[in-house]
Amino acid sequence: MSASARVIRLGRASLRWRPRSLLLCAVLAGLCLALGLALLGTGTLAFPPGEVLAVLAGRSGNPVAERIVLGLRLPRVLTALCVGASLGMAGAIFQSLSRNPLGSPDIVGFTTGAATGAIVQIILADAGPPAVSLAAVASGMATAATVFLLALKGRPGGGNRLVLVGIGVGATLAGLNTVLLVESDLDRAVAAQVWLAGSLTARTWSHAIPAALALAAIVPLALASARPLALMEMGDDAARQLGVPVERMRLVAVMTAVALTATATAAAGPIAFIALAAPQLARRLVGSADLPLLSAAAMGAVLLLASDLLSQRLPFGVTMPIGLTTGLVGGLYLLWLLARSRKL
Prior knowledge:
Blueprint: E1 6-10, E2 13-17, H1 19-40, H2 49-57, H3 63-98, H4 110-124, H5 129-152, H6 159-183, H7 186-196, H8 205-232, H9 236-241, H10 246-268, H11 274-286, H12 293-312, H13 322-340
């Protein structure tokens, strides 16, 4: 164990933490609060930070500000917070499993799989938001199971094989999504395309509360998987010698990460870049080889909140869906990553 790590023991259980990681999480939490405050005051009717704080504290005498901040903007901010945290943590798990900086749900097709279920509901069933969200979660989980089984196929499902199979399945589903959009009527195709762009617009408590509950339910399982995943990064054979049930652990980790991705996609549509960049930025800032689950979640929340603020404050009155904003930034980041990496 590194000298910089600290251990707290509670009976037979123990908690290992690093001061630098804890400091980074605290700084990122502060940034989330600052960005959230800025977002609550941003819009057609702008409010200064003092007015926003007064509304949140219940001391504002402005009923218009209370209705807008509490009823319209706060659910959007909380949805962005939960979606960003879910994607950041999911990206950290995928990159640990694949031992590859490109091993994010965007790249390996799980986000595309969740989108397939949503498109089927929108185009074939003309379903409403609850059915679309449930279909996205179910389809994402089914895609993950398919990729895992194909990657296994009578041999240990190594990380690189998992990524390659995921890319192939994702490409197939992307083609299916395109066929559905082309063959549907115009109104439903437009509705599906709007959903595919990824958006935080018109998010309500019906989006924020399920996203928060799902995150709270899945995080303990993800944290329990952190130590075995860190051992698996040394190689499957080494992990087995240390007592890790590799294939079972890989399945649990994949389903945990896909559950995080699917619930995030159900709440806001496909959001690119966050799951790819957040874990890498967190790992570089922490400066440790440990799996940065909490810091990646905090970094994901910061990135999505910052992207949302940027999308609302573009010059010339231009507004962009959050999915397009993160996709644009993520494309530039991916090019930079490929240019500087000698392993890709």
